[in-house]
Amino acid sequence: MQFTNFLDKYPTHQVEILKANTAFKNVDDFLNFFSEKVDSNPLAMKIAEFDHYAHTSSLPEGEIAENILAAKQIIFCFGIKLPSPTAMAPRPRSIGITEHPDHFTIVFMEAPNPAMHKTMLEWVAELQN
Fold first, then answer.
1. Are 74 and 95 in contact (CB under 8 A)?
2. Less Cβ around it within 10 Å: N or C end of the chain?
3. What Pfam families does the record point to (predicted)?
C-alpha cells in the first residue's frame, strides 16, 4: 500500500492489484466486497455507490485519463461520535475503485479516527491475500 499526500494536502492510501492476481473481474466485484464489509460492520453505514466514470463522461467538458476504463466509489460513514459540527467536515468516507487495462487501483483518504482508518486498511489488505 502506498501513502501519498494527493495535491500536497490530502492523506491518501493507494494500492494497485494486477488483474492476473485477483479473482475480481470488474469494479462492481470490488464494490460488492466493500459493501459486504460495510454492511457487516456494526459501526458503519452504507450511504451510496457513485459511478464517477459515468458522471464525468456525461459532462460536456469532462476529462478521463485514457487508461481508465471504469471508476466507482462506495460511500459510507463510521460516524460513531458527533462532538461538534466540525466533525462532519471529513465525513463521510469513501473507497474508490478504478479499472485499468491490466490492473485495478483502490484508493481512499485517511480517516481522522485511527481505529476506523485501521479498519479500512484491513479491508484493503484482504484484497491482497
1. yes
2. C
3. DUF6858
Write out the residue range of the structural domain in which residue 81 sits: 2-127
Distance, in Å, from the CA atom of 90 to the CA atom of 35, rounded to the nearest integer, reads 20
* Bridge-based pairing state of the strands 10-18 and 2-6: antiparallel
Q: Is the pTM of this model over 0.90?
A: yes
Q: Strands 2-6 and 103-109: what pairing?
A: unpaired
* CATH number, domain with residue 119: 3.30.310
Residue 93 to residue 95: CA distance in whole angstroms: 7
What CA–CA distance (Å, rounded) separates 30 from 124? 10
Domains in the chain, number: 1
Phi then psi for residue 9, to 5 deg, are -145, -15
